[in-house]
Design brief:
Blueprint: E1 3-9, H1 13-27, E2 31-35, E3 44-49, H2 54-72, E4 78-83, H3 84-96, E5 102-103, H4 109-115, E6 136-140, E7 142-143, H5 154-158, E8 162-163, H6 166-178, E9 183-187, H7 196-199, H8 204-212, E10 219-222, E11 241-246, H9 254-260, H10 266-279, E12 284-291, H11 298-311, E13 315-320, H12 328-332, H13 339-362, E14 368-377, E15 380-385, E16 395-398, E17 409-417, E18 421-429
Helix pairs in contact: 1-4, 11-13
Length: 430
């Protein structure tokens, strides 16, 4: 009789992909696999942790402790921890939380399988057990990062940049497409660096074009593009590539960009944005900003506010600086912006962006857009356009009694808008 194992994933989509590969191995062994379950009928639990910033670390610790409590009550039998938090702090965690049976890093997946009583099968290395709806999937094209941004612990956790061979990625994407995936979301710590280590040159553009040739794939979406030395060949008029780009700029002040060691300055940032919008008309840009970094002055922050108001990003997220052990900023700079000031700056940026988002949504009233259906909620179909990534961006809510299966693509007319969501009616099904 198969034993049930629960894999709980915290953090980003890259962690999600790691868990999906792990679960595929376990599923082909002697386990019944569930994920992110609160049920206690799975007697073995694996927690895949995040350790990127302070809040993520705390969520990981809290999750581990909740399962420790369940173990102490006899509700689960074995508890294992893997992922980013464990990679950085397993030696500190072992004596602090000894109830965990073992801790594993980000590259120890085969060891996790062995620890729970399974056997790693190399021929299954590209297999996935999707935790997303099957019509979209994340495709992780590399591991690690060669950048040395002042605030970022990812290179300390994930190591140097290592690309996945292109043929392996295409084969993985073909399997996903055969299983019903219509949208591929290309991710990595830095997607623009793809191929440099394997082929001696950046190959992101070629990879995207090969993914577009896969039967069944309708949309290819690019996330986590690094702005410095952005590869020209990634700009393509291929119709399957979504007019969407997740490109974290972090700041615009030259002094802050230098201190952050971003490899790009204010003028180059504006020039890149102008080039992207000129060569890909209608592109939706998502960015991430970091405020409260050491020595961020009122003038620096004013520049950041001006940047947001001038560029009018379609999608934007803001984080307050969190000092991370071992990073350049933690070793060489003082975390000298008060926490209250950080919070207020985040709030001011998001207030500005809320107004921009509403204005941009209002401009879409009356337009027709091709969308993909994600599901139904509260009597409305939930869908997205090519300008919106799942879980983080605008949803298009469709008033219709029709039951369209997730993954269905159709044309809708936008009839109503608010700050972050749109409402629509169906024109026709594709």
């Amino acid at each position: 009789m198969k034993r049930k194992i629960n894999v709980v994933t915290l953090g980003c989509a890259k962690n999600r992909v790691d868990s999906e590969h792990l679960m595929a191995q376990l599923r082909h062994d002697r386990f019944e696999v569930v994920y992110d379950s609160d049920s206690t009928d799975a007697k073995i639990v694996v927690v895949n942790t995040c350790g990127f910033i302070g809040d993520a670390k705390q969520e990981s610790i809290d999750t581990i402790l909740s399962f420790v409590a369940a173990k102490n009550r006899g509700e689960i039998e074995r508890l294992f921890v893997m992922g980013c938090l464990s990679e950085r702090y397993k030696e500190e965690l072992r004596p602090e939380i000894p109830e965990v049976d073992d801790y594993f890093g980000v590259r120890d997946m085969a060891d996790v399988v062995a620890a729970v009583g399974g056997q790693w099968r190399e021929h299954l290395a590209g297999e996935r057990m999707l935790t997303t709806p099957r019509h979209y999937a994340y495709l992780k094209i590399s591991e690690g990062c060669d950048r040395r941004c002042g605030y970022c612990a990812i290179p300390l956790i994930r190591g140097r940049h290592v690309s996945v061979p292109m043929d392996a990625l295409v084969a993985e994407a073909e399997k996903l497409a055969a299983g019903g995936t219509r949208e591929l979301i290309v991710i990595a710590q830095d997607t623009t660096y793809y191929g440099l280590d394997l082929y001696g040159e950046r190959k992101l553009g070629e990879l995207l074009r090969r993914l577009c040739r896969i039967d069944g794939i309708e949309w290819v979406r690019l996330h986590y593009a690094y702005p410095a030395s952005f590869p020209q060949d990634a700009i393509d008029d291929e119709p399957k590539i979504c007019k969407y780009l997740d490109i974290p700029f972090q700041h615009i002040s030259d002094s802050q960009l230098r201190s952050m060691r971003r490899g790009i300055d204010r003028a180059q940032t504006y020039a890149l944005i102008d080039r992207l919008r000129s060569e890909i008309p209608g592109i939706a840009l998502r960015t991430t900003l970091l405020t409260g970094y050491p020595d961020e002055s009122e003038a620096d922050f004013a520049e950041l506010m001006e940047f947001v108001g001038r560029v009018r990003f379609e999608r934007l997220g803001v984080f307050a600086y969190s000092e991370e052990e071992g990073t350049y900023s933690a070793q060489h700079l003082s975390d000298n912006v008060p926490e209250k000031t950080k919070r207020l700056r985040v709030e001011r940026l998001m207030e500005l962006q809320n107004g921009i988002s509403r204005e941009l949504n209002m401009q879409r009233l009356g337009t027709t857009e091709r969308v993909i259906v994600d599901g139904r909620e509260d009597g409305l179909l939930v869908a997205r356009s090519q300008f919106d990534s799942p879980e983080v961006d605008t949803e298009i809510l469709i008033r219709t009694p029709q039951e369209l299966a997730p993954g269905t693509m159709c044309t809708v007319r936008i009839t109503q808008a608010d700050d972050y969501d749109l409402y629509a009616t169906i024109c026709d099904e594709i």
